[in-house]
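M14 family metallopeptidase structure dump, as promised
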Amino acid sequence: MQKKLLKLAHATRCAAVCASLCLAQVSTMAHASLVMKPTYHPDLDYSAPILEGNYTKDVTHPDDLLGFEIGQRVADPAQITQAINTWKGQSDRVKVLEYATSHEGRPLFAVFISSPENLAKLDDIKQDLDALSYPRKTNDAQAKAIIERLPAVAWMAYSIHGNETSGADAALAAIYHLAASTDSATSELLDDMVVVIDPVMNPDGRARFAKSLEQYRGAAPNVDDQSLLHRGDWPYGRTNHYLFDLNRDFFYLTQPETKGRVALINKWRPQLMIDGHEMGPQDTYLMGPPRQPLNFNIAPSVQKWAVTFSEDQGAAFDEKGWRYYTGEWFENWYPGYSNYAEYRGSMHILYEQSRMAEDGVKRPEGTIQTYKESVHHQYVSTLANLQSLDKYSDQMYQDYWQDRKLVVSSKSPYADKSYIVLANDNHSRTHLLAEKLLAQDIEIKRVDKAFSVDNATNHLGLEKDDIEVPAGSLVINARQPEARLLAAIMEFDSALKPEVLQAERKRVLKKGESIMYDTSAWNLTMMYGLEALTVQDELTKHLTAYTPPEKISNQIDANAIAWFVDGADDASVAFAARLMEQGVNVRVIDKAAQFNDVVLNRGSVAVTITDNLKNAQLTQVIKQTADDLNVEVLSTSSGYGKGELPDWGGEHFVLLRQPQIAIASQAGTRSNDVGTVWWSIDTNLGIRHSHLDSNALAMTDLRRYNTIILPQRWRMSDANLAALAQWVKQGGTLITHDNASAIVSKMKDFGAVKVVDDIFDDPKPFDIALQRRLLAQSEYEVSPGLNSSVLNASVTYPWDDKAEALKADVLKQRNEWQKLFMPAGAMAVGHVDQEHWLSFGVNEQLPVLYMDQAVLVAPQEAESVVSMGVYTENKDTEYESALGWYSLPNGKDLHVRMSGLIWPEAAQRIANSSYLTRESIGKGQLIMFSGQPNFRGAARGTNRLLLNAIVYGAGFGTRPNIVL
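structure tokens r here:
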């Protein structure tokens, strides 16, 4: 194909394209303004402008608003906002809604574009869409009439990744074209359609990337795609303020951009949703439909229309002579992308344009692809898809109606199934889960009287009968209007097709790569660490509609001697942290307790009068803090613990130290992990902390901090590691994640925890430590002869009935093979030490999102707080040979996988390893996570472990000097 060159982005662009331009010409402009008018070279062939057609002069042309031709440069969020605010006052085809505000205060807009008549009746259109979506209230005749009068609805969204800029610039062109065109084709299109354009889905990330363009823009153009001009620098523009990938947040709903966007999408139920992205700079253009694996919960009719639309989009590119391809590398398995809308009946199309900065990039065939060409591709795709929707809208509405009827009928594939979230004392987390479901129009019931169920399946896939469902549990019946979305985010296990597994296995073996583009497990109850069941029945008895809890206004007993917040609730950690921030002395009870009628779980936060005699505002501070967090304050007039429960003056009331927190970040650190830690501290705790440059720790006064978090990273200098080690020995709490844990584990004369790769020459200490932990979990059988004076010659040892240990060379060979099959992201089960302070508020069985991460093993010197795998009794189980460095007990099954794709080889590598360890080093401590505990801000179960480490570590695990 003969590729046309587009006109260049600024005055000296032809210097990079034409060798004939002499160096003298470049040097004369070397120190000129970097914002120049385009200069044309006679030897180059320029394409037509992006905007073609007849336009009214009443609507300002975008070139006049921006100060440059659209597509010549990247429009920043402020310029996009200015254009939208200008056009909404100039065109009667435009209505603008600000649906969210970013963390940095930038507005996010939905620009509604249609005929003035349609815009005047948007409320009626929305009412019709609602009626078509709820077949319980609408019949076929009513649906037919609605479809005949309903305009098509399209949601066109761009640049959710801030450094993928061409989509937002194309959005500006599309808004202007639809608002200002005087051509009959455009007015006829808008008579039939409501177009909603979401022009810049991530303004904070785009602003960051636009700033980097200013920083790295030179006087001469740069077409080298390895240049920082094209790539940006850490933390890059892809993510939002807290470094979240917003295109993974569509049902987790952690970020304000997503919350506002999803709420509006769900109200308008678009027939079509497009999402404009960019990919590698040397690529061409990718469009839908996706390849396998496709999530089973996407309606077949939606997948059918994806093919039709792609054919029309391909034809539009053929007409221009532009290269493209469909669905070669992306799949729709994980439901947290923008294709989220497909689970509600929308047809979704992904655009992936090759990414480049304003100067364009040099291609292998020797041509230059300009940024303007990228914008033009996105613009043409937009119009092509809208034209397709105009043709097929009525048929698509018919398919939508038929599918909505199906999923609520007795023939529904979701009939006779319910999900149960069992009642628990972690009210904050349970209500947060309900909030996320309600935000997606999912119907929830609350159990008002306990009952029992049979055929219940738990997270491990084990079937149980006669399980009691206590009052306060949540029940979500699968047969409901949003059944497809509900199943996608709540089913415990999404089984992959055999042919997909075959393709995955081959890819792993041939290339060491996965065909899975993202995680293969994401169940919300597992991510939240809440015990749940699936029941093969539609539950109806003893249920009432769930309503969110009312705001708590605590009445504080000023005459009490101690006040408590129960430790099962996640908000208790924030309660402790915020009180310490305000100068209150706080204790935590490390075991269950009872004072008078106040019953408390272990980990409960206690504020005593004796610790705070000089604080005249104590009760006011307690009330305000608890009310802000919406948690109940309990109080007592007695410090006497009933029975063997702790008294308030004993060792179980541990005095905390205020955490002085730092996050070590910057280049070499995984920005997503930094961001989730940062966001968790700000959102869940709301206390002060500092960000440090992890590459300059040796030159930083670390004495100001008692808690440092080292998120996942790729490398670290010896000097910076030595500085951290010295700081820990002097009393610091170091918390490491994933590969940062692996790096620290290799330090000489520091910690005892190792990565599994490093123990094969002497695995016995780690196996013995494992056996001690496993035996400590079981009841010891007390024999009659235990107290006999006669020597018992029949003592058994943990390794007596085990298979013969594998030799080092075999272990190493197996480990290298097992590494090939580590999961891209799946749920594994962890066993949690219920006596450790790090596990406050965490169930004994904890779902852990496991990836290709550090596999940690702990000897006896270290505490394994969360170990991978749960054992159950099975007298028929016998192990003929060892599987790894560990000894397996006969008569027991070891469960590792909960959900998602974990190959047997990977399960053997993960089994019996440690997800979370803690060990004392000098006066300080090292807390190591095998993975990322706050994955995407949604892994609430493992995030509680992290919050405990941050807030309680300085008080529980270190031996600081007493200050006199």
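The radius of gyration is 30 Å.
lmk if u need the other ones
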